[in-house]
Amino acid sequence: MKLYSAPGFSSLADHIAMLEAGIQFDLVKVDLETKLIEGGGRYMDINPTGYVPALMFDDGEVLTENVAILAWIADRAPELAPRGHLGRVRLLEMLSFIATEIHTRFPTYLSLPEEVREPTGQQIVHWFGFVAGRLERGYLFGETFTVADAYLFQLAWGAAQLGFTLPEPLGEYIARIEQRPAVQAALHREGLA
Predict the structure, then answer these.
(1) What global pTM score does this model have?
(2) Separation between Cα atoms, residue 22 and residue 73, nearest integer Å
(3) Which of 8, 96, 138, 154 has the CA that lies 20 to 30 A from 175?
(4) How far are the Cα atoms of 66, 99, 133, 153 from residue 138, in angstroms, in the given order?
């Protein structure tokens, strides 16, 4: 199995979650500018959208999109999903929220001239504030780390790197999650630590 990833991008969440789950995979780095794969090949032949992540199974089938890949990981590692009769749908609800309200605003923010970024930046901070309110017991779903926390961590960590002032307790959350062995391993494998 291969995880196609670009260092520091949202595929870091999938990388972390796969390590947390103990899933064996090869990490394949993608240059998002040239759309070339480390070691040779065109990424567009793997994922025609050109976005990361993409997860290629041993049979050649490809799964894309953070929500889908993270849900697939949680199905294989139930300890990385919320419990209860609504656990799976609550996970999909949170993953979809993170993807649509936080993640999708970053490309817009980064593509805007600096002098007109403020409204989009305020929207990003607003939605980070919303999810920060879910962290009173440590993680998005209480006292247990889930694949949704891997996704939120990656986006909050990236936002902090960009200089965003994030609402508390996100600063402590980032620092605590960054110490997890799987996170440290993913950051090192991607050349980010």
Answers:
(1) 0.96
(2) 10
(3) 96
(4) 22, 21, 10, 12
**pLDDT at site 110:** 93
Give the Cα separation of 74 and 95 in Å (integer). Answer: 11
Nearest-CA neighbor of 101 among 89, 111, 93?
Answer: 93
Residue 193 has pLDDT above 90, yes or no: no
- Contacts of 171 by beta carbon, 8 Å cutoff, 6+ apart: 160
C-alpha distance across the termini of the chain, in Å: 25
* Closest alpha carbon to 148 in 99, 86, 85, 190: 99
Residue with tokens 């902090």: 160
Which phi and psi (to 5°) does residue 120 adopt?
-70, -40
Q: CA 192 to CA 42: how far, in whole Å?
A: 24
Structure tokens belonging to residue 142: 């209480």
Residue 133 predicted with pLDDT over 90: yes
With a CB cutoff of 8 Å and minimum separation 6, the contacts of 153 are 13, 16, 173, 174, 177, 178, 183
Q: Concatenate the DSSP letters of all residues of 18-77 into one string.
A: HHHHT---EEEEEETTTTEETTS-BGGGT-TT-PSPEEE-TTS-EEESHHHHHHHHHHH-
Q: CA 87 from chain center: how many Å?
A: 19
What integer pLDDT is reported at residue 44 of this predicted model? 97
